[in-house]
């Protein structure tokens, strides 16, 4: 029996700003331990960046008292409603830029579109706990080129990232669109919905659901009597030991071990197989206006930190110039991006957060504007990346080239440091 879609009349939305580690640690404990306090995109590691939070009505007084006791700045935002998802068919690619669609219609449209086009290939890399396909869309034109891998939809409630990647997919295939020229320089691998079970559950039953839908053999009972379900895919790449490993009821439960889930494990295998040809890995998320680079799990910096930071800085300047929107940038990337950089040493790795600042949950009317921002980010960052790292990938791959890739990255890093 399906539950009704969550009514946000039962919740109070806030924007909260933490200015130091003490405040952020307190907020993180709330985030982890209280299921009635929902941080839409987690607790940021960066000071002074507002966080979107939704609090159940029966918890509001306690929540605000705790914020006051820690002198944490917060503000109420206007009440928001949930936009229904469409269950009707996708008539044309343009419709992906104006509406949110459910899982079944997205999959049906992709399968139908694959039969009409020779420019892309759909590959199923795994089945989820509830037997949904995790698929990748590979777009290429002509000879082999450096790979750009883009992934979204790891958080069930993040409808926007999947909508934006699907819009990107259609525009890359459109010969009349300027983005199509990127196919002359790169091969694209797009994974629009890494967590299809969580995505479908968020669409049909609980708008704020984040995790996958794995059912544990322990059948552990949680605070409100429900059985613990799901692992946070975004955190299943963890690189450090954590007490959260045994807390299945937590909204940010990261699993009993690294890459324990079909979603993360299958993606890790694919990324490993593509690593030598991958010039860029980009993780797209909703709920924010910033671009982050590794590492976020510790204080180390990457071997080409200054180069990537300069690319991101230039990209944010281009966003401001073209769209009059300020994007923050810094080192506090997610676990997936950290894993890719540490394990595979892909030259360009970053996470981009896309939302309209005035809203907490996205509306389909925002897809169009956010799509143009994403296209600006990709065009600027990828063309700069091609200028710097293109020579490394544009010659025939051989054992010697495999050996010198890391040396090349260090050389470029030292060169830019001396400028």
Automatic annotation (TrEMBL):
Belongs to the peptidase M14 family. GO terms for biological process: proteolysis. One of its GO terms (cellular component) is extracellular space. It comes from Euphydryas editha. Pfam families: Peptidase_M14. One of its GO terms (molecular function) is zinc ion binding. SMART domains: Zn_pept. Its cofactor is Zn(2+). Residues 99-378 form the Peptidase M14 domain. This is Peptidase M14 domain-containing protein. It comes from the Eukaryota. Keywords: Carboxypeptidase, Hydrolase, Metal-binding, Metalloprotease, Protease, Signal, Zinc.
């Amino acid at each position: 029996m399906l539950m009704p879609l969550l009514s946000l009349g039962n919740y109070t939305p806030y924007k909260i700003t933490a200015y130091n580690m003490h405040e952020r640690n307190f907020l993180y404990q709330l985030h982890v331990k209280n299921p009635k306090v929902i941080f839409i995109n987690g607790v940021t590691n960066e000071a002074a960046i507002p966080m979107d939070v939704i609090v159940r009505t029966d918890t509001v007084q306690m929540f605000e008292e705790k914020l006051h006791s820690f002198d944490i700045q917060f503000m109420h935002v206007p009440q928001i409603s949930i936009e229904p998802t469409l269950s009707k068919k996708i008539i044309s690619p343009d419709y992906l830029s104006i509406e949110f669609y459910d899982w079944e219609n997205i999959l049906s449209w992709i399968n139908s579109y694959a039969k009409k086009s020779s420019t892309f290939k759909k590959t199923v890399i795994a089945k989820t706990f509830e037997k949904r396909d995790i698929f990748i869309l590979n777009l290429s034109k002509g000879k082999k080129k450096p790979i750009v891998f883009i992934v979204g939809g790891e958080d069930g409630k993040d409808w926007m990232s999947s909508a934006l990647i699907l819009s990107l997919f259609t525009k890359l295939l459109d010969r009349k669109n300027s983005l199509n020229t990127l196919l002359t320089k790169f091969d694209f691998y797009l994974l629009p919905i890494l967590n299809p079970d969580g995505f479908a559950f968020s669409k049909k039953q609980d708008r704020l659901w984040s995790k996958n839908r794995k059912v544990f053999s322990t059948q552990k009972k949680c605070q409100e009597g429900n059985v613990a379900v799901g692992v946070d895919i975004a955190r299943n790449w963890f690189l450090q030991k954590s007490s959260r490993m045994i807390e299945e009821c937590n909204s940010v439960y990261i699993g009993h071990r690294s890459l324990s889930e079909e979603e993360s494990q299958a993606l890790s295998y694919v990324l490993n197989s593509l690593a030598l040809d991958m010039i860029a890995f980009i993780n797209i998320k909703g709920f924010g206006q910033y671009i982050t680079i590794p590492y976020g799990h510790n204080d180390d910096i990457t071997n080409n930190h200054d180069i990537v930071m300069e690319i991101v800085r230039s990209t944010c300047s281009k966003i401001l110039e073209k769209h009059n929107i300020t994007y923050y940038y810094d080192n506090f990337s997610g676990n997936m991006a950290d894993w890719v950089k540490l394990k595979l040493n892909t030259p360009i790795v970053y996470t981009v957060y896309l939302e309209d600042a005035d809203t907490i949950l996205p509306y389909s009317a925002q897809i169009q504007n956010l799509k143009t921002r994403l296209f600006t980010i990709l065009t600027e960052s990828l063309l700069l990346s091609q200028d710097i790292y293109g020579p490394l990938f544009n010659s025939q791959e051989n054992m010697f080239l495999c050996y010198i890739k890391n040396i090349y990255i260090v050389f470029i890093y030292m060169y830019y440091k001396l400028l």
